User: Fold this.
Amino acid sequence: MNRVGKFLKENWLYLTVLVLLILLPHLIGWATDSSPLGVQRGDRFIMRGQSTYWQSVFIELFALAILVMSYNLMFGFTGVISFGHALFFGGGAYITGMTLEFMGLEPTLGLLVGVLLTLGICGLLGLTIGLATLRLRGVYFAIFTLAIAEMVWVFFGRFPATNGEDGLTLKSLPTFIDPTQNRIFLYYIALAAFAFTFFFIRRLVSSPTGRVFQAIRENEERAKAIGYHTLRFKLFAITVASTMAGGAGILHGILNKSARPEYLSVTHTVDALLMTIIGGVGTFVGPVLGAAGLELADVLLRDAKLTLGTTVINVGESWNFLLGLVFIVVVLVFPYGIVGTWHRWRAQRRKPK
Amino acid sequence: MRTILGLLRLFFSFGKWLYSTSAFTLVVALLLIVVGVALYASQGNMATFSITILSGLLRAMLLFLVAAGLSIIFGLMDILNFAQGAYFMLGAYVAYDFQHSNMGVLRMGDSIPDPNLRFVVGVLLAIIVGLVLGFVLERVLLRPLYERPLFQLVLTFGVSIVMLEFIKGVWGTTPNSWTAKLALQDAQFELFGQPFSMYRLFIILAGFIMIFAVALLLRRTRIGIIIRAGVEDDEMVNALGINVRAVFTLVFALGCMLASLGGAVAAPFLGATPSMGATFLLAAIAVIVLGGLGSYEGTAIASFIVGLAWATMEQFSLFTNIGTVLSSTTPMLLLAFILLLRPNGLFGEAR
Assistant:
């Protein structure tokens, strides 16, 4: 069989999902009788209707999925644990936002420069943190990332130039990518970034380099004894992951048209960690499923109320608490996540009796 | 060019010195730097200077209470307990709630009319809550995970989130400031004409006593010998016929208890706020990294350095235009510098 046929055979499920996602705004528009472009008023479009609403949900989902996949590259495939991944996520939004607002470039050029700067700085930052702490035991990296993330969070919460707690509003976003005017374009950009990240991580992890990542995760001493310079491989994984998290932050920032200190808060690290574990640590589809499941649950259950006897629990208000409980339960009784458990179940069934 | 190279060489030789010099020299140097900056920040005003040093000592004691548990637990079981900050916060909330029966949730404090006695009971209550919850965390949640150390780290992190959200859910997200009057709090003494609350002085003294009490426990009792042996090699201790797992549980619960005691005694001047857990956790992590992971003496000395540096920076930011950013990030900045320049800390062994 030729290479294209082989590729199609191996990836038919992913490609089907991709086609579905490409058609999604139109499908929703067709099903709910709303235009995927929004409602036209004169020569502008106003974002109203089901289709544009779900587009924004999915852009958010793609940004989160990229964040979670990048986290999984470190935690799931290389075995390096970070408690400050939100640093790159929020940092991405802030660097792009500050480039757009303060450099005074023409918007399109500004966005381009901002994206390049973000990816570069995030990658470099990840590399530096790794260089400083990865020679030591794993726990130092976790501590150091947490400390840096908290420090930057506190800093931007009080930094006057970006309006402290209120955050920076992206006013000079180019019109073609502005989610309040041309959301469908941003949807496709986000989808492209998401698909690229997914296939890139798959390719990377299946490559010889990726095999070394997994060897490090399983037993770093042994990988060292075989003769690999494990520090270099870990640094590479961290640099790639931080760059990707920066990219996710850009998408999140553009969608919300702002860069706020909350993006840097520990909540996003928890999200990434939780979604990775729920979906399945060290699997390709797991992080995406985890991100999709939790994001959709958040959107759908925000106004739900849970009645237990006489007490009524407002799900939206106690969302983080419930997430935390799910987190603990999953770590204790369900450590391989959805996809991991599925793989084990299949492997057990296939075992010859 | 030559000057730049010279400066670089100076910087690197400084780094090398930091890496190789003895812990004692470094401690003295750091303390001298901190006190010097404190003198500069108070602009030669002895009253301000002494108050800064006293607030630094107070900080140091609270930090010690959080960091001691963190450090011993890490040395013994290789778990960095990210929930330690949440226990500190919980202690503060329990003491606060017991004291202020009119705005509390439990509304139990009314049974004791005398506020001073009520405070003592509130602190005892906080200690019990910390002890019990620490026991539960180790026994129920961490014990199944000893085969997977990475997940233990993840789990304590998750527990800290749950506790924070639980506290926010029960007591609300707004900071609660302490309004009850304690006799010790009202009593003041003067230092160079500046008043300082007797209660804070009492906490400093009590902190010193705690440092020596824990040191005595570790050095002079049988359980302390077992703990120190466990820090060296827990499998060997187990092989000698001692139930190390039971010691793990005990130490974990005691560590959480110390943190929640710290929160309870801090409540009268810090109040009870949802952000105090993360603040003190990070500062305590800075302390144990500076002291050297797993070293008790290192933790005790490092709490003084970090506490004094923190208070000094707070004073420093009062008269400069840097604002509060610098003071609130001091522990994390310190942590970053230590990890970059002397990653094994003052008293840590290279691992």
In short: Chain B has one domain: 60-341. Chain B has a mean pLDDT of 81.
